[in-house]
Amino acid sequence: MKPFLPGPTMLLFAMLASVVMLRADDRRAARAPATAALDRFDTARIVHVASTPRLLTTPTNGAITPPMATSAWSQADPFAPVYLVSSRETYQGIRGVARNAVARRDSTGQPLVISETRADALAAISHYVHASEGRCGGYFAFPSRVQAEAFVAADRSMQAMKASLLAAYTLDNQATVARWLPQVQEQRLYDTINHLSSYRNRYYASAYGRTSAEWIHAHWQSLAAGRSDVSTELFTACSNCSTQPSVILTITGWDLPHEVVVLGAHLDSINANTRTDPNQIAPGADDDASGIATLTETLRIALSEGWQPRRTVKFMGYAAEEVGLRGSNAIAQSFRTSGVNVVSVLQVDMTNYKAGAVTDMKLISDYSNADLQNFFITLFDAYLAPMGLTRSSVACGYACSDHASWTNAGYPAAMMFEAGSPSGSFPYIHTTSDTLATMGESAQHSVKFAQFALAYLAETAKTAPHKVTGGPAPVSQVR
Ligand SMILES: [Zn+2]
Questions:
Q1: Is 287 one of the catalytic residues?
Q2: Alpha-carbon distances of 335 from 143, 382, 409, 411, rounded to whole Å
Q3: Last residue in a domain, options 133, 153, 173
Q4: Does 182 have pLDDT greater than 90?
Q5: Number of folded domains in the chain?
Q6: pLDDT by residue (tens digit) across 285-342?
Q7: Which of 4, 109, 112, 259, CA to CA, is 20 to 30 A from 158?
């Protein structure tokens, strides 16, 4: 039998048909993933349109980054549900991208809202909080509603803010402070900010977010070389911090080891225009490489002379602040659960921007301990005002930075914030322009914060004498 050979007409018809089918298949193949992503994206945008016109102005790159297949990114799934605890005012602004809201109150009576959103909406929410409320932070984030409810139910802000239990804050370590303050080097602050802002980002769910945290850990470890009373750790007991650890360096107290003084700053960064993209460009030089640099320089000076504190001191670089204060909250809750007696917390989040005729530092006036705020003023007036520096105060709002995690857990915390500009805060926060270049290629304003942190460290942790003859009154907390 002869094999079947199509005639020329038949052949032409078959070729035309296959080309048409091929092109149709191409379109289907090209469309399939994009359509799926766009459908999800459009759903989110429709929600925006329906109820939150203000969020419509939020710039986006218009593209959804699909979750990467590797397990390292699994927690960066843009469609993963996230449960927010925010103020009622913040919820009013973000309700277009948050649903299933329930009203709650914290222990101070502050109206709060627990709502549900998606991971890929967090950057837009942060952008909204910054643009419309003029601040960073703005919410706590949890992987489940049960955890969000438990967090609000266990809130101890009333105790942390109003309780007057810390009368033992005293000013009697002038010798140490006077020795330390002239040692602050602007170049070292600059170098740390420069290194940290050289990572593509320090986003909590990116490889850079982990390697930059590990660099901080290694750098702090090197400053503590040869000290058996100093330890460093990567804190990973955070269920929603992805692969980013927090960093903790501990100097064990000489005679009051169970009273703990904390100095903290967040180590992550975010670009509010790029959702969950692990390759986003987020230098975060001011927010908050400047805070980590401030702590690093404080630590260097204290350890370089072999200083030993009476109380235990913990320097902390917090993971995942920009997506709902996750690292600091995990640490504060874990300390609360295990009964760690934290007697004081200093938060430094943004220390290096000043433009125009504004005071050098702003004391954050809300969600922090009243006695500790007063002590910050005392410290400033005793040690920084004589150098010609000026201060003011400003409210920051609910869940504004990591001090709020400590306040919620019932611990006394307070925060000193940068000078900013007459019109408000740093204009380049959460953008690709948060760089040393937009801060005059200088770390001069962080110098003041390192000096404040040194005064705080010396006067809260105190200097261990060779022989104890009395010593500071114990600081105890009622639980
Ligand atoms: Zn920040």
A1: yes
A2: 20, 32, 9, 10
A3: 153
A4: yes
A5: 2
A6: 999 999 999 999 999 999 999 999 999 999 999 999 999 999 999 999 999 999 999 9
A7: 259
